[in-house]
Design goal:
heterodimer; B: mainly beta
C-alpha cells in the first residue's frame, strides 16, 4: 500500500500570506495525486487532480505541483475561507489512499 | 446541479448490519464510477470501496473486505453499501462520492454527499 505523508500537521498563517503544503508518497505515483479541502462540518472538496490541474470552479490562488513522490499544494494569498484541513489522495490499481491531513489555521 | 444524498446511518450494535444508500441526481449516474469514503470522528479520510459503472469492477479497502458489499442500481440512480459484522472501528461518517469523469481510471472525486453517520456501539 502506498502511504502518503503530509507535512506539516498544522500550519499557522495569516490572511494574505502564502501557504505551502507538502505530500510525500512512499513510492512513485507519477502524477496521480489529488488535493482536497475540508471545512468544518462539510464534505471534502476537490481542488487539484493529477498533481497540477485545478478542478472546476477552484480559484487560481490554488496551485499544485510535483511528480513521483513529492508534491506541493500552494495557496498564493490566503483568504479567510481557506483556513481548513487539506488532504492529498493517490490512486493505484484498485486502491486509494489519503494523507493524514494538514490543518491550516489562522495565526 | 449534482446532488448526492446519503441515508441509512444510525446506531447499531457490534456484529450488526446496516445498509447505506446514496441517491444521485443532476448527472447521468449510470456513466460514472462511484466510491464510498468514511471519516471517523475527528480523524482523516479513509477510502472504503469503489464500483465501476456496470458493477463489473469492485474494489474494497482491506479493513472492510469480506464484511462490506458495494452495489448500485443504475435504474434507480442509487449507490449502496451493505455493511455487516460491524465493529466499533467502523464508526464514522460515510460519504458517497462521484468520480470526476465518465471514463475508467479517473479516481478523483469531484462531488460528495453530506455524509451519514454510522455509530457502532453497545
Amino acid at each position: 500500500e502506498i502511504v502518503l505523508t503530509q507535512s506539516p500537521a498544522t500550519l499557522s498563517l495569516s490572511p494574505g500570506e502564502r501557504a505551502t503544503l507538502s505530500c510525500r508518497a512512499s513510492q512513485s505515483v507519477s502524477t496521480y495525486l489529488a488535493w482536497y479541502q475540508q471545512r468544518p462540518g462539510q464534505a471534502p472538496r476537490l481542488l487539484i487532480y493529477e498533481a497540477s490541474n485545478r478542478a472546476t470552479g477552484i480559484p487560481a490562488r490554488f496551485s499544485g505541483s510535483g511528480s513521483g513522490t513529492d508534491f506541493t499544494l500552494t495557496i498564493s494569498s490566503l483568504e479567510p475561507e481557506d483556513f481548513a484541513v487539506y488532504y492529498c489522495q493517490q490512486r493505484s490499481i484498485g486502491r486509494v489512499t489519503f494523507g493524514q491531513g494538514t490543518r491550516l489555521e489562522i495565526k | 446541479e449534482v446532488q448526492l444524498l446519503e441515508s441509512g446511518g444510525g446506531l447499531v450494535q457490534p456484529g450488526g448490519s446496516l445498509r447505506l444508500s446514496c441517491a444521485a441526481s443532476g448527472f447521468t449516474f449510470g456513466t460514472y464510477a462511484m466510491t464510498w469514503v468514511r471519516q471517523a470522528p475527528g480523524k482523516g479520510l479513509e477510502w472504503v470501496s469503489t464500483i465501476s459503472v456496470s458493477g463489473d469492477y469492485i474494489y474494497y479497502a482491506d479493513s472492510v473486505k469480506g464484511r462490506f458489499t458495494i452495489s448500485r442500481d443504475n435504474s434507480k440512480n442509487t449507490l449502496y453499501l451493505q455493511m455487516s459484522s460491524l465493529r466499533a472501528e467502523d464508526t464514522a461518517v460515510y460519504y458517497c462520492a462521484k468520480h470526476r469523469l465518465p471514463v475508467p481510471g479517473t479516481w478523483w472525486f469531484d462531488s460528495w454527499g453530506q455524509g451519514t453517520l454510522v455509530t457502532v456501539s453497545s
